[in-house]
Amino acid sequence: MSTVLDKVVILEPMNPNKSTALFGGKASGILNWNDLAYPHFYNHREQIRALFWRASEVDMSADIKQFPNLSNEERNAFLKIIGLLATLDGPQTDIAARISHYSTDPSVKSIMATIADQESEHNHSYAYVLSSVTNLIEQNESFETGRKDEILLKRNERIMEVYNEFAANPSILNVLKATVYTSLLEGLFFYSGFAFFYNLARNQKMVGTSTMISYINRDELQHGRFISDLFRATLAENPEYNTKEFTDWVYDQFRHSVEQETIWSRYVLGEIDGIDLVEMEGYIKYRANKMLRLLGLSDIYEDYTDNPMKWIRAYVDNFDDTKTDFFEQKSRQYTKTSDLNGFDEL
Ligand code: ZN
Ligand code: ZN
C-alpha cells in the first residue's frame, strides 16, 4: 500500500528552495528557475508558455456560413466530438491543479498552473465554436454527450476511475497512475477527434474550427512531453514502484485505451467521407507506441512505428520550432484575427 501524500504547505522558509523530491519531499515554496532539482523543466516551461493563444482570436465567420451546409453525418459527428473533447479538457484543468497540490517541487506547480490555464482555454474554445455555429439547445446537447452517450461513458470509464481514485487517495502510486492517464489523454484520446476536424479542413470545410483544434493539438503535444518527463522522474525517485507488475499495468492501460479509442472512432467516424477506419486504427496504435516511448517503455504494436495515416502528417507531425505548420501558413490569410494587425510579427 502506497503512503498517502499530504497537501503541501505554501511557504516554509525552513525548507530549501531547491526541492528534495517531486512528491513527498521538502521545498520552501520559493521558485528560482536557475536552481531547480530538474533544470530541464525550465525548457518545458518556456515551450509551453510560448504557445499562448485565445479562442476569441480565431475568426469563425466562414465556419458560421459553412456549418448548415455540412452533411447530417458531419454535423452529428461535429457535435459528438466536441462533446468528447469537453469531457477531456474540463477534468484536465482540475487534475493538473490537483497534481500540483501534492507536488513538493515548485517548478512542477508552476508548469502545472500554465497547463491548467491552457486546458481551461481549450474547454472554453468548445463553447466558443458551438456558440458560433449553432443554437443553445444543440450546444447544451453536445455538452451532455459525456454524461449520456453509452459509448463515450464506456470509453471514459477508466480515466474517470484513475483520476477519481487519485483525488480520493493521493499516494505516489496514484500520482504515477494519474500521470499515465494524463499521457494517454494528451497523446491518444484526442486524436480521432483531431483527425475528424483535419479531414474537414483538407476539404476546405470549417477551417476556423480546425485552426483552433490545431492550436489545442500543439498544446497537448507539449503537455504530453512534460507529463512523460514528470512520470519518468517520479518513477526514478521512487524505484520501489518500478516493478514488472506496474509496467504490466501501464501496458494494459494502453492496450485497453487503444481498443476503446478504436471502438469510439468507428462509432463516430463510420459515416464520414475521407476517413479510412483501418488507417485510423493504425494511427491510434502509432500514437500509443509514441507515448509509451516517451514514458520510457517499449512499443506494443510492432508495425506501427511510422504514422500510417499519411495525409494527417501535414497537420500534426510538423508542430515543432523549426517547421511552419499547415494552419500557420494559412492563418495569415483568414484565420487568426490578431494576424490582421500584425500582432504576431511584434
Ligand atoms: Zn487540452
Ligand atoms: Zn493538455
General description of the model:
The protein is mostly helical and 346 residues long. It has one domain: Orthogonal Bundle (Ribonucleotide Reductase, subunit A). The chain has 15 helices and no strands. Helix 1 (41-49) runs parallel beside helix 4 (106-133) and helix 8 packs parallel to helix 11 (244-269). The relative contact order is 0.12. Residues 329-346 have low confidence and may be disordered. The structure holds zinc ion (ZN) (2 copies). One zinc ion binds at residues 92, 119, 186, 219-220, 223.
Identify the CATH architecture: Orthogonal Bundle
- Biggest sheet statistics: none
Alpha-carbon Rg, integer: 20 Å
How much helix is in the residues? 55-70%
DSSP strand (E) fraction? under 5%
Give unreliable regions as ranges.
329-346
Mean pLDDT, all residues: 90
Categorize the overall geometry: globular
Keywords: Deoxyribonucleotide synthesis, Iron, Metal-binding, Oxidoreductase
Enzyme class: oxidoreductase
Cofactor: Fe cation
Family: Belongs to the ribonucleoside diphosphate reductase small chain family.
SSE layout and pairing:
Layout: H1 41-49, H2 61-66, H3 72-102, H4 106-133, H5 136-148, H6 150-155, H7 157-168, H8 172-189, H9 191-202, H10 207-237, H11 244-269, H12 277-294, H13 313-316, H14 326-334, H15 337-340
Bound molecules: zinc ion (ZN) (2 copies).
